[in-house]
Automatic annotation (TrEMBL):
This is AraC family transcriptional regulator. Pfam families: AraC_N, HTH_18. SMART domains: HTH_ARAC (SM00342). Keywords: Transcription, Transcription regulation. Residues 197-295 form the HTH araC/xylS-type domain. It comes from Pseudoalteromonas distincta. PANTHER family: ARAC-FAMILY TRANSCRIPTIONAL REGULATOR, ARAC_XYLS FAMILY TRANSCRIPTIONAL REGULATOR. Coiled coil: none annotated. The keyword Transmembrane helix does not apply. The keyword Transcription regulation applies. InterPro entries: Homeodomain-like_sf, HTH_AraC, Tscrpt_reg_HTH_AraC_N. PROSITE patterns: HTH_ARAC_FAMILY_2.
């Protein structure tokens, strides 16, 4: 059986992506192909929620008190979007390659309900402390379903007929694996994890608006102190720090992809003080907006 790295290389060849850099959606909605030919230094990024499977290369995610290293043969489970500091490494001068899979909420809820009909969750698994970022090694079942997914990606007819079912099986395998509690927590409507996930959805869609911690807590029927504690447990950040990182990431995106000027980008993401924006941008990215643009075009 070919390795996942070999299958990703075949996918790149079949779809004329041997010079592609970055992340793009495949013919199966919600499934993304990622490729990078060079290592990248430690930098702040926002990881979207989903399942990331690495076929080649490795990455290190840095937290204040620990690190997560994951590479070929590993997968990462993110229940919510999280601002992280990450560095990526090519191995043996071969490109970093992998796939990412969005988790459809309706599919997830249906799967969790079906699993619970056969195997009720114990109190420990449903109330365990859940962090937003987890990684694990692919077991045989996960490897086989990943192979099937990569196989049908090269065949539009099979991708259309089988793609959704293969993604469903992949999510099921994750639910049954060592990081399944992250997704189970997401499906529990009244649990703290699911409430914080709803908060993050609000923050990502309304980051340019005036947002208060009190308002966010009220939206999910939590006290401010409980909300603060649960938010930090899930995202490793305070609500205001998280919001700041989302705004800065969005501003950087506006500057690099839309050509927005720094002051214009600052206003669009919710800053009222351009000088505060410039200070926080430099502190976060270790570069000024103009230096980011210069690096982009060099």
């Amino acid at each position: 059986m070919p390795t996942i790295a070999n299958m990703l290389q075949q996918y790149a060849e079949h779809n004329q992506l041997l010079s592609f850099e970055g992340t793009m959606e495949t013919i199966i909605p919600g499934v993304y192909f990622h490729r990078a030919t060079k290592s990248s230094p430690r930098q702040p990024l926002i990881y979207n929620s989903g399942i990331i499977i690495v076929g080649q290369g490795h990455k290190i995610i840095h937290f204040p008190e620990h690190q997560i290293k994951y590479g070929a043969g590993d997968y990462l489970v993110l229940g919510v979007p999280v601002p992280l500091e990450c560095e990526a490494f090519t191995d043996n001068d071969l490109p970093v390659m992998g796939i990412a899979i969005d988790i459809n909420p309706a599919m997830l809820h249906k799967l969790v309900n079906q699993i619970m009909q056969h195997k009720p969750l114990s109190a420990s698994s449903s109330s365990a402390q859940i962090g937003a970022v987890q990684s694990a090694t692919l077991d045989t079942a996960m490897e086989l379903v990943t192979h099937r997914l990569l196989t049908v990606l090269n065949n539009p007819i099979e991708a259309d007929i089988f793609g959704e079912d293969i993604v469903k099986e992949l999510v099921y395998r994750v639910l049954c694996g060592p990081q399944g509690h992250t997704l189970i927590g997401l499906a529990m409507h009244d649990g703290h994890y699911a409430r914080i996930a709803r908060t993050l959805s609000t923050m990502h869609s309304s980051y340019a608006n005036q947002i208060t911690v009190e308002g966010l807590a009220e939206d999910v029927n939590m006290s401010v102190s409980s909300f603060h504690r649960a938010f930090r447990q899930v995202t490793f950040e305070s609500p205001l720090q998280y919001l700041k990182k989302v705004r800065l990431a969005k501003a950087k995106e506006l500057i690099t992809t839309s050509g927005s000027k720094a002051n214009e980008a600052a206003l669009k993401v919710g800053y009222t003080s351009p000088s505060q924006f410039s200070r926080e941008f430099k502190r976060h990215f270790n570069k000024t907006p103009s230096e980011v643009l210069t690096q982009l075009h060099s």
